[in-house]
Amino acid sequence: MRIVALSFFVAACGLHVVEDDQVPKACAEPPPPGSCDCSNGTWFCTTCPFFEGTAPVACSQPGATCQIETWEHGCDCACGSDGYWSCYAETIGSQCPHGAYHDAGIDAP
């Protein structure tokens, strides 16, 4: 009778066993440079002075580079001679800033 009662008690409490591979892993300290988030043992850092988005972002040091890294997306960026950050999307769905659009000089009808 005691075994049945104990079994019922354990089942009623919803005992959940967590496997070692399901336990979130801590990231090594200290974090790398930039604005960083730890996700399951991996640092994701952004060294750009801006975050994801598609709007043009001005820059003042042509040739400077930076990266945007999240657990899902990434952008490699460089400050262009036109004074805007130009970024390359590392993954499908990344929202990366691009240079300013310039008018081609064609008037619309």
Report on this model:
This protein has a domain at 31-100. Strand 1 and strand 2 form a beta hairpin. A three-stranded antiparallel β-sheet has the order 3-4-5, with no helix packed on it. Strands 1-2 form a two-stranded antiparallel ribbon. 11% of the residues are buried. The chain is 10% helix and 24% strand. It is built from one helix and five strands; from the N terminus they run αβββββ.
Order of neighbouring strands in the sheet with most strands: 3-4-5
Biggest sheet record? 3 strands, antiparallel
Order of helices and strands: HEEEEE
Strand content: 15-25%
How many helices in DSSP terms? 1
The secondary structure category is alpha+beta
User: What proportion of the residues is helical, as a percent range?
Assistant: 10-25%
Overall outline = elongated
Report the count of strand segments.
Answer: 5
**Rg, nearest Å:** 24 Å
**Average pLDDT score:** 78
Which residues sit in consecutive blocks of at least 5 with pLDDT less than 50?
Answer: 4-11
Q: How far is the N terminus from the C terminus?
A: 89 Å
Short descriptors:
109 residues; 3-stranded antiparallel sheet; two-stranded antiparallel ribbon; 1 helix; 5 strands
Topology:
Blueprint: H1 2-12, E1 35-39, E2 42-46, E3 65-69, E4 74-79, E5 85-89
Antiparallel strand pairs: 1-2, 3-4, 4-5
Quick summary:
The protein is α+β, with helices and mostly antiparallel strands. The protein has one helix at residues 2-12, and strands at 35-39, 42-46, 65-69, 74-79, 85-89. The strands form two sheets. Strands 3-4-5 form a three-stranded antiparallel β-sheet, with no helix packed on it. Strands 1-2 form a two-stranded antiparallel sheet.
